[in-house]
């Protein structure tokens, strides 16, 4: 990039620019691309150096033998390591999350894998909150033990003493190297109290001389309604496939944190070939421009849909939406950590799986599909899809029953979504309660 840092302008005088504004231009200098207002797609596998000495310097930085210049990840070398399109996304995502640095990967699971492989070693223990996304559950519970990495868990992220007990118990198996949480959790919207977790990690550090790294999957809320790195979590992880991408037309992931914390993650990404391609990176940079308004509109519609389900006259429903969970401790943490509810939530009916399937089949606008955070509204039965690889015992423990149904509210008019649900509830359950 050019020496002139105006393309990374974050202030006008003393006024700090908002992330929504900086999504339009931050990290990109039009004068380096023939004056193009929008970044082009840099479809190249390799980059030319002005001199061989410059190439040598770039490789020293990439390999970690020398530090990168302030505010840079080093020069462009090869698209497996870095390229302009991915660097633009990383710069802009860092602004939204409130983190010093970001690393973008080829999928959300690629981002999680890069984190785990960068920091966990045989004999270590990873402690997880529960439930997690089904793919993460499988990676931690089934894949890591094959490499002699032990696991532990806690089920109530609002119970500080319970978290401490779980980490102490896990410490009897080996060094607790990492705590991996998902908050809010998919599909129950359960929360982990960040302040409580940090106090627990302080105690573990005092007792053992080692502080476990904390990682939060921030996909459901972030980066608009929750930023976890500024709240003391070491790394925020994202499936960019979801709200950030926002149109169900790409797959990508990201990790946010301090430059030093992400240094081994970046090295792992390069070594394993987990970088994201230029075109998909370009698509994400476009999506970031509308992220706030998309998430805010979908959240507003989600509230209205959740209210209709709560009040529906056909069958009793338990609503697992952050603003409908009637628990004092939960609400205190939600209001402290989050600025809004996002638009993905579940509801639970006291019905069989076949009845849940009939309800889904009777919908017209909602598409029956996994994933979430797209412009279209989706409906999903987690027990038979995203969490089908999790044992029945664990699903029951997490509350992922046959009657739990997850919604991802998109950008359709909420009145139409409610009409679709009303028709499906009426046809499925025949008469009002």
Automatic annotation (TrEMBL):
SUPFAM superfamilies: PLP-dependent transferases. NCBIfam families: PRK07049.1. This is Methionine-gamma-lyase. GO terms for molecular function: methionine gamma-lyase activity; pyridoxal phosphate binding. Belongs to the trans-sulfuration enzymes family. The modification N6-(pyridoxal phosphate)lysine is found at residue 242. It comes from Paraglaciecola polaris LMG 21857. One of its GO terms (biological process) is transsulfuration. It is an enzyme of class 4 (lyase). Its cofactor is pyridoxal 5'-phosphate.
